[in-house]
Structures are given as structure tokens and as C-alpha cells.
Amino acid sequence: MDHGLIMLDQIFVDGAAWVRGLFPLALQPWVEMLLKIGAIAAIAPAIMMYLTWIERKLIARMQNRFGPTRVGIYGLLQPLADGLKMLIKEDIVPRGADRLLHRAAPGVALVPAILLFAVMPFGRRMVAEDLNIGLLYVLAVSSISSYAIFMGGWASRSKFSVLGAMRSVAQIISYEVPGVLSVVAVIMVAGTLSTVGIVEAQVQHGWFIFTPWGFVGALLFFLSGVAEVNRTPFDMPEAESELVGGFHTEYSGMKFALWYMAEFLESFAICAFTVTFFLGGWDGPPIPCWTLAALVAVLVATAKRLPLIAKGVGMVAMGGVTLWWGLQPIPSWIWFLAKTYALVFVLVWFRGTFPRLRVDQLMGLAWKFFLPMALLNIVAAGLWWSLRDTPAGWLASGALLIAGSFIFVLLNKPAPLHARHYLFAD
Known about the structure:
This protein is mostly helical. It has 18 helices and no strands.
């Protein structure tokens, strides 16, 4: 690996090492810890703010609208305006509510969403902490949100909030079961619980999604995660036609913004860990960096609302990237973010396409289809691993999963509807 690639692929790692080296040896572990905390504290709010912008823009395009356009070029400053608006809104606590729990619940929901970033491998050597139980950490921390949701709904002293919280907790617990079982196959094949180790196993053996059990496992994990964060079409706990706003009906101002931030960060985390466990993480084909620079240059040059000076700066910057790193492969952190935001697009696509499920359909899907498919997928992964590197392993695991899915669909087929006959009194 030559110097150019090291500078580009490891630019953030080398920068952190340079800053750490400015301090005495005894202070360097503390400096490293503060740098990691500071990076997560800076990245998480930025990701949340611009996820809202991306969602509003994509949904608007799907509905033949423009989306945010007024604040900044292409509405890029709209998230900052929304955050300022939330800060100056009145903070209302319902009369009779448990004020302590009402105020604490949004923070309890937000902290686990931020803690998930600690084991998220953004690129080679770009993970805050490579825990040897990283996957278990992800599953444990993500389950805390159900406590916060029920805490907020119960403390609000509102029937709408309590019903929304109970729905949400039931949904989260139901979809956690197939979600956890879907990654058991990953642990079996990778032989480690480390998120970095799982990515390295895929670099060595190929992305898991290109195996029969990996494809099914990725679908189960991703869809279970979408349901756990109450995103469309699994947003029954926030059914505004029935429950006003669900568990956060009685929240306003910055406390409502914290609920919103937790939801968007967990949505990003679901996409990121789906990429980590099934889509190869930071791994990607060795495409030269000049191709990406050329693509960005074309986008900048053809942007209609971008000022001329901004276009000039962008073109010069892309020219510099091409001259300095043009022949080197695209950095690992760009591959990771590209895959993650591709799944974010799928999340938004779901919202713009699918109607909300009924509550019986939602719960039935978890217990009657996802759960048995997750159990069957573990068996399929065992077959594939025992017969690995042979066509028999692929055929056996694929046939088992296809047959199982057809059987579970037939077993869950609703009863045919019959004409109703009414008896009227004389």
C-alpha cells in the first residue's frame, strides 16, 4: 500500500494519531478517548439533521414536489432552521404527568442510539472501540429503547400516549426475536462477535448477502430493524389517525426533537449494521478514485442553483483529488457510507410507497413468518457451512429456504371470505 492510499483511506486515523502525538505519553490514552467521544458527539447530530433533509427531499420527489428549497441552496440549511425552531418552542408538561420521567425519557431513548456508534466500523481501523462482543453489544444497547418509550408514554398521563407506548413495546419485543436470530448465522460462519471481525471474514470469504442464508438473513435483520424503529410500514405505534402521535403525543419543543433524533439515529444504525453484517462493511471493488472525482465534478458542474464560485471551488478540489489520489482505490469509508445511504434510500422508499399495516398483520408477520424463517435460516447456514465450497451446499440451503418460505406463506394464508347472512327479527 503506497503513501497516497494511506493518506486518503486512513486520513482520519492518521489525523487522530497526529493529534494524540502532540501530548505526553501519559495523557495519550485520555486524549484518544476524548477524540473518539468528540467524533461521535459531532457526527451523530449531523447525521440526524441531514437524514431529515434527505427524507424530505426524496419523499417530495416521489410526490412530484420540490421539498425544502427556501433556507440555503437546495434547502441545505433547513435542518439548522428546524433545530433552532425546536430550541425556542415552549416546553409543555401535561398537568398530572410524572415530570421527572417525562423529562428523562427522551434522553434515555437518545443515549443508546448514540452508543451504537461506538462499535460501528466506518472503515479500515475506523471504529471507536473494537469490542470482541461487538454484535452482542449492539443487540443489548438497541433493546434499551423500549424502556424509554414506555417511560415516556406512561409519564405523559395520556391515554393516547399509553396506548402508543404499549403498542410500540409489544412491536419492538416481537421483532427483536427474529432480528436477533437472523444474525446467529453470521456468528456461526464468521466465528466472532466483533463487528470488525465480521467484516474481515466477508473480505476473506465474500459478502454474506451473496449466499442463500445471507440474503434471507439480511432481509430479516433489515425488516425487523425497520419495525423496531417504528418506520413505515411498521409505524402502527404512531398511527396519527388513531393515537394522534403515539407515545410522544404530549412532547413539544426540544424534548420532541430528542425523540426524533433517536429515531433517525437508530434508523441509520440499522442500515449501517445491515451493511456491516451482510454487505461487506467497508469492503468494495478496487475502482480508481478518479472515477468518483469525475462523477462529483460532473454533478457540481451541472448543478443549476450552485453559485459559480462554488462550482469553481468544487472543480478545483476534484482536480486535486484526481492528481493526488486518482489512481488509488476509493477509500473504505466512502464504500461504507455509500452502502449505508443506499439502504437509507430504501427506508425512505418504503415510506413513500407502502401503506401502514394493520396491527394484526404487523404482529402476525413477526411471529408467524419472520420467526420460523429465522430459525430455518440457521439450519440453512449450517448446511451451507458443512458443505461449503461445493454446489451441494448452495443448492441444499437455497432449496430449504425456498421450500420453507412457501410452506410458511401457505400456512398463514387467510381463510376465504364467505357471504354474510343476516337474520332480522319479525
